[in-house]
Amino acid sequence: MNHGAGERPHLVVIGGGFAGLWCTRALASAPVEVTLVDRANHHLFQPLLYQVATAGLEQESIAYPVRALARSWKGTSFRMGEVSGVDFAGKRLLLGDGELFYDYLVLAAGSRTNFFNIPGVEQHAFDLKQLTQAEELRNHILLLFERAAREPDPLRRAALLTFVIVGGGPTGVEFAGALRELTQHVLSRDYPEVSPGETRIILVEAASSLLSAMPPELREYAAVKLRDMGVELLLNTRVVGADAGQVTFHDASAIQSRTLFWSAGVAAAGLADRLGVAQGAAGRVVVHPDLSIADHPEVFVIGDMACLTQADGPLPMMAPVASQQGRYVARVIIGRERGETQPPFRYIDKGAMATIGRSSAVAAAHGFRFSGYLAWLVWLVLHLYYLIGFRNRLLVLMNWSFYYFFHERQVRLITGDDDHR
Amino acid sequence: MNHGAGERPHLVVIGGGFAGLWCTRALASAPVEVTLVDRANHHLFQPLLYQVATAGLEQESIAYPVRALARSWKGTSFRMGEVSGVDFAGKRLLLGDGELFYDYLVLAAGSRTNFFNIPGVEQHAFDLKQLTQAEELRNHILLLFERAAREPDPLRRAALLTFVIVGGGPTGVEFAGALRELTQHVLSRDYPEVSPGETRIILVEAASSLLSAMPPELREYAAVKLRDMGVELLLNTRVVGADAGQVTFHDASAIQSRTLFWSAGVAAAGLADRLGVAQGAAGRVVVHPDLSIADHPEVFVIGDMACLTQADGPLPMMAPVASQQGRYVARVIIGRERGETQPPFRYIDKGAMATIGRSSAVAAAHGFRFSGYLAWLVWLVLHLYYLIGFRNRLLVLMNWSFYYFFHERQVRLITGDDDHR
């Protein structure tokens, strides 16, 4: 420890996502000074971003200002800024507009979408990582309907109304279901010029089934349910290219579409590449069993950025892993200050779930498997529980109720400037 | 009428603000086909834009999708588009991407901010006409606090925390009060790095008092109340120039500030200049007593765009005038189809009001004058009443209650890209 006797050590946490925020919160009453750094001023509840993009929630309801949390956590301050690198030898964090010295450093910068360098995909695809992307995608979808409403040419009209979603994981499945419900139940009433049968939603997956992390019967349930809703499934299909007007597949077939949504891969945040440390698959930083990195026991990497291999392989990049690791690292740091050692991190798998549509979801936890209405209720309750802020919960619950009872999604506003795609 | 016998006449309404929307709604059951054209897909409740800019309301709560209204109005359709001009002889409306033929045309494109060509003001000032501007201004205010929190230089710090509001009408007064409450009661807790005394809010007015349309005792009440809250008033002061870092006044004095908010003037929407018709002050279109224009009895101009002079001079550019004119023109058109003539338009002045802060407002109506808590309650109820949509009302009421009871404005999110000012 390079902090003087009696002085409280300074911990810098990079990232206000699940990992960084849970770590910071767990240190609120500990004898450390914490500076939480993020380039946004809010914690974002990413699992519900797709509902913002499909006009179900206002963007403000899934974000919470970090300072509103930090002000009630003793010894915690917030710094909005972009991290450019780390000087490990000097224990110094480099920011776009300054620097911060640390005794402990926790890197929790999360992940970015992985487009796998497939030609045209990064330029033309939509993905969902930030709040503004969700608003952009919502604007784009609604603008396409406005254009389709006055487009006489049948081919151009079809391309405007065809949505290609790539990636059959939870995000792709949830987005496909929510988009289908938006077009069939809400936009069909708003746009008498467009017949509901004209809209096509195509979910593309390279593997032979959706939701590969789920048990087989739940995968099957999701596929049947989505097909019933009218979503077209293209399994065993890989995207090899995209441009502004079409998506091309491995068998040289193509679909004319103005919307390509990409949820087929994630990689560690770009910061991981700039650290000069060992990286595993998807650019994730290889960590010790206590989540610290080689040669720097005072530096921890957690959440999507970290690559920790346990019995079933590398831990998945998902919120429960991130928040458990955040709380764990807080314990490790408190322990170190007391001269105690913690047992290695162990992920407690609480299950996985995905919602497919109104009253329909799949969930697998502790050997139990649910699907349908019950799974959907569990999904609702858990998402409300993990959302931060009483007002946000109320807002989300209100929106869900309106949709449930009136089949109405009111946030179908086109805001901002013209659509650039 | 150039529509054939038995055919329903086609009315085109430009603008989904108070004037256009109230006109369209009043024609919902009339024997006419109505096409409502707007460049946005939503009706915006402009009187509350300043609350979005001061983090009190989410932007979605003061906007309502036009198609959600139009779908329940028989014979009404919506077209999103930008109007480039009107071919009066051919009864043809020219759009950016097409054209529409009309039997009747109602122009209700509203107003734009008037910067009076004062050097630098249009480039550097913020104004509030659209939803995105309110979000931009909120982002800007919060980003200034983030920068001030880490700015050691006292002069730069002072400029970041100094807000200059020009125009002592209702918008300037309401924005000044709301911004002061935001900085004193909310941001002061979020930013321990900034002391509440460092923030300056300066309201500048060219005349000798605020709220010139109000009775003298209410003007005085507003001035006393704002001063009590800590807003600095600069009366009898004209802005003569602005750049990114300062605002200059007629006496050559200047204030270093990174924020200039402009509410000192409005002019008719730019469309008025492209019509080739007679214009009055502020570019407003001169109309006949039935709100039609010279030589074209089938063309009406209403709302902020119209210049109609009555006993007290030209009617003010405000929501009640616009909605009364919208309903009036609907009656004129229905009457014409029946061969009946309506009496000239007469504005019924229902009063004026402005809120200053929590539990404090001024209102003048029918010879009565209120100030304080009662006026504030009346203001709340009327604004909720005129807001469109049950869910929006609920949302706004919820936000106001949270603020009232917990002094908390949760929408203090910085969204979108970097601040460009």
Key features of this structure:
homodimer, 421 residues, alpha/beta, FAD/NAD(P)-binding domain, 2 domains, 6-stranded mixed β-sheet, 4-stranded parallel β-sheet, globular
Protein described:
The structure is a homodimer of 421-residue chains. Chain A is of the alpha/beta class and 421 residues long. The first copy, chain A, has 2 domains: 10-39 and 81-113 and 266-337, FAD/NAD(P)-binding domain, CATH 3.50.50; 121-264 and 351-406, 3-Layer(bba) Sandwich (FAD/NAD(P)-binding domain), CATH 3.50.50. Chain A is 32% helix and 25% strand. Chain A contains 11 helices and 27 strands. The first copy, chain A, has helices spanning 18-26, 49-53, 66-70, 121-124, 131-149, 154-160, 170-190, 216-229, 319-337, 373-386, 390-406; strands at residues 10-14, 33-38, 42-44, 63-65, 76-80, 83-87, 92-95, 98-101, 104-107, 111-113, 162-166, 200-204, 232-234, 239-242, 246-249, 254-256, 259-262, 266-268, 285-286, 292-293, 296-301, 306-307, 309-310, 313-314, 352-357, 360-365, 368-372. In chain A, the strands form 9 sheets. Chain A has a 6-stranded mixed beta sheet. In chain A, strands 13-12-11-17 form a 4-stranded parallel beta sheet. The relative contact order of chain A is 0.16. Chains A and B meet through strand 4, strand 5, helix 5 and helix 11 of A and strand 4, strand 5, helix 5 and helix 11 of B.
